[in-house]
Design goal:
Elements lengths: L3 E2 L18 E6 L2 E6 L4 E8 L2 E9 L5
Antiparallel strand pairs: 1-3, 2-3, 4-5
Length: 65
C-alpha cells in the first residue's frame, strides 16, 4: 500500500512542506490519518461517500518520447 499511517498529536503534523522535496497528500477520515507521496506523472483521486473517505486511487503514466 502507498498510504502510510501517521500519528497526529495535538493538531501537529509530523511532516513539513519545507522538509519534503516531493509533493505529498495527507488524508484524514474516521479518526485515521494517512500520508502518501504523489506520482511524478499521473493523477490521484480521493473517493468519498457520505462524508467519509472510501478509497484513494492512483493512475500513473510515463512520458514516451
Amino acid at each position: 500500500m502507498r498510504l502510510k499511517d501517521i500519528l497526529v498529536q495535538e493538531d501537529h503534523l509530523p511532516y513539513s512542506a519545507k522538509e519534503e522535496d516531493k509533493p505529498f497528500v495527507i488524508v484524514y477520515s474516521n479518526g485515521k490519518t494517512k500520508m502518501s507521496y504523489l506520482p511524478d506523472h499521473g493523477e490521484t483521486k480521493i473517493i468519498t461517500h457520505q462524508g467519509q473517505v472510501k478509497r484513494v486511487c492512483f493512475d500513473e503514466g510515463e512520458e514516451f518520447k
